[in-house]
Amino acid sequence: MKGRGVLPDCEQLEESGEGDSLAGLIVGRSSAMQRVAALVRQIARYPSTTIMLQGESGTGKEVVARAIHELSSRSAYPFVALNCAAIPETLLESELFGVEMGAYTDARSTREGYLLHADGGTLFLDEIGSMPLVLQAKLLRFLETRRFRRVGGTKEIHVDLRVISATNSDLQAEVKRKAFRDDLFYRLKVITIDLPPLRTRPEDIALLIDHFLQSHNSRRESPLRMSQEALGLLQRYPWPGNVRELRNVVEHGVILCDDDEILPEHLPEHVRLAGTSASQRLQELQQLMHLPPEGVDLPAFLARIEQTFLQEALERCEGNQVRAAHLLHISRDQLRYRLPGKRSSVQRPPAS
């Protein structure tokens, strides 16, 4: 990479084994990450197309945005990131568009905004769903004209840049609720990239760990490695914080490790316990369950338990049936068959 250091607050990704133009940017041999890498290469050739990145927190949306920027003809110009949720609504407009001197009491000088800072390059708007409706209308006008006025200004300023937005929420639902403009939504998502959560691509965990250890090994006489026992724990952990959480866990192990091998005891307690806590809770539950003297309607009882687990899995996965089925160790077809109202219309799938 051309002089780029570790990216703040976001995992750095890299594609393994190829040594091509994405080396150092995207990590992953999983089919999902290979699809992301292919889209990044394709999109980078079109430097004006707006892009929307969708995925859970910590899946690497900013890193993918930077990769698109680095591979495009805009790479010699700035990459500017703005987190729309981190700035109060009253300040977001002036941060984005800039402000003219005297526009309000504290505006003692003219100040450039993020749009002008990103001229020629890429503007990355993270958590775009947090942008207030009034500002959404002004952003839409800018996307259509590439012109804007500073707050309190009358002069139109033209800039040439690419806009990449990102969200970890369901913007389509926000559009239906009238909380997000539909015209802006479709203007932002000319191309959409969905970033998979880490729990759906466990085959990438070892690659990511090696990648994170490399940055620490460059400062050590002998290289660090992850023990097989510790790696097994990490591969079984569900990673609610995704790759960002994995990076932090690896750093935790590096700090506590006194030798050259990170062992299970060097990992955070919640990671060590995650692999056994579920089975322990089920064992405790089984110990509490006893057949009552009058007996039990076993089919009805088991059906209620099944429906409880199905609904909890779907809620935890925000309705995603593939991920919910993965949690329950069944196929998506088996999950769909078990949903209320599906048994009569869906042919029963084979048992897993």
Description of the molecule:
This protein has helices spanning 31-44, 61-71, 89-97, 114-117, 133-145, 171-176, 182-188, 205-217, 228-236, 242-256, 269-288, 298-316, 321-328, 332-338, and strands at residues 51-54, 79-83, 122-126, 147-148, 157-158, 162-167, 191-194, 225-226, 261-262. By secondary structure, the protein is of the alpha/beta class. A hairpin with an 8-residue loop joins strand 4 (147-148) and strand 5. The radius of gyration is 25 Å and the shape is globular. It starts with 30 loop residues before the first helix and ends in a 14-residue tail after the last helix.
Give the key terms.
about 350 residues, alpha/beta, five-stranded parallel sheet, 14 helices, 9 strands
List the helices and strands in order.
HEHEHHEHEEEHHEHEHHEHHHH
Low-confidence stretches: 1-20
- The structure class reads alpha/beta
Query: How helical, in percent, are the residues?
Result: 40-55%
Q: How many helix segments?
A: 14
Multimer state: single chain
Major pleated sheet: 5 strands, parallel
Shape: globular
How large is the radius of gyration? 25 Å
Number of strands: 9
Kindly estimate the percentage of residues that lie in beta strands according to DSSP.
Answer: 5-15%
Mean pLDDT figure = 85
Strand order across the largest sheet = 2-3-6-1-7
What is the terminal-to-terminal distance? 45 Å
